[in-house]
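Review session, final week

We close the course with one last complete record, chosen because it touches almost every idea we covered. It is G-protein coupled receptors family 1 profile domain-containing protein, a protein from Oncorhynchus tshawytscha with 381 residues. Go through it on your own first, then we will talk.
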Amino acid sequence: MMALTTTPLYPEIWTELSHNDSSPGNSTDDYEDYPDEHAELRQSLNFMSLIVYCLAFVLGVLGNGLVIWVTGFKMKKTVNTVWFLNLAVADFLFTAFLPLSVTYTAMDFHWPFGKFMCKLNSTISFLNMFASVYILVVISMDRCVSVVRPVWAQNHRNIRKASCISLGVWLWALVLSSPYFVFRDIGASYKNEEILNCFNNFAFSDDYDTKEVAELRVFRHQAMIVTRFLLGFVVPFAIIVTCYAIIIHRLKRNRNLASHSGRPFKIIAAVITAFFLCWAPYHIMALIEMVNNAAAEFSYTLDHVTTIGVPIATSLAFLNSCLNPLLYVFMGQDFKEKLRKSILTVLESAFTEEVSRSNHTYTNSGLTSRSKEKSYSDAEV
């Protein structure tokens, strides 16, 4: 049985995470007088959220905008720049919509932007999550193939195919995020009819008393959480881990190959690690909340965990969208060199494919298999 409070904890763009949402779909007369034990904590967490949102907006828009400018207009287009350009676009779209979330939280969770923007805001958020993780999957697979089959990759890997694959990733991400556009709705808070909440209406109904309608809401809610966890986290990271296990195994067997693979390998490994650390708590909190609400006996210990954990986990997910440009800068080259160079040079250095710095030249017949492998590793590990 859910314990509901009279004040929303976190009815943000991911309100389905919080069982304390006071939106219409979660209110019942049985709990209107339930004591709000976390009111002061809630206020502190919401204030923290506002700070994180503003920080993510400023750093994300400026950082990702700069990455888009450099990779899209200032650098020679390569397969690498196609991958990182799409990753930056996904993060830029998300951070560009953050002022809506800032306003929503600052106005005590009143949504003044209408139903369409409520739907679009949530959809963009999950579009960013799915697009980012599957772009990382594509990058990992690309690098794995480049290491294991360097000659084949050199002959078949090009900008046109990378662009088509990127388009496919965006379409797949749009499919996975479309349910959030369908189910998102606005309605008056049961505590104050003048306050409009942006929430998930999983039954497309204002009927909150009928057992069948309630069961439908719960089923769809659980289905979306499980699907998001599997397709947005478990499966992608299983593929990524497998790819990098193969890469590491190959590099250990070929030290010459490893010596030319350090910096690009570290950059993408850092990006993947940051994504994992930022999104893992979010998915864990969602599963804890779902299990607790479905349990025969509601656990107030887990309730306290989600009360604290949900806003922190969601804030981490927000911050991920502004971390990548910082990683590109601080891992693109030695720190002392970065102090002597402009930010554009640093980003360009981080993204430039190593093949442009190699003295080796690819020919169809003039390179041995070993020298081909070494040259290609410079470009794409």
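Two points worth writing down before the exam:
Residues 45-96+131-184+212-357+366-380 form a domain with the Rhopdopsin 7-helix transmembrane proteins fold (CATH 1.20.1070.10).
Confidence is low (pLDDT under 50) at residues 1-35, 334-340, 355-381.
Good luck, everyone.
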